[in-house]
Amino acid sequence: MNTLQKIFDWKTYIFTVLAVISFSSFIAVLFGQTIPGIILTFFKVAGEYVILGTVLIFAFTWFLRAKPHNRPKSYKIVPIDVFGKKSVIEEIRTEFKTHDVAWSFMKQYKKTYPLHNFALVSDLKNSDKPTIFRYI
In this structure, are strands 117-122 and 95-96 parallel, antiparallel, or unpaired? Predict the structure, then answer.
């Protein structure tokens, strides 16, 4: 009975239970909190760098492609008849200082004179010919 009592000693049983519980809690903490926390932190930081890099690449390419706009100082509306020739309509205003006002007048002229087309043109500094901005 003494040897049987030695095999099932409560001290050994307690030590085994504590070892199993502490090892299993260690494994649970390792795979449940530590490793996922490290991986999530890595991917969060990596994602931030990918987004920041994408924004910087976009800004850099936009900066390289952006050209300073050479905006004209005045715009003209040129009426064009059905045969494609420049024509003159005495009742309309043709000289404008801003693009938006000229475009608005040109749309109104198209409604008033449906047999004519209209071109919004301006002289740029670098070109010899007038540049057509809009055509309706």
Answer: unpaired
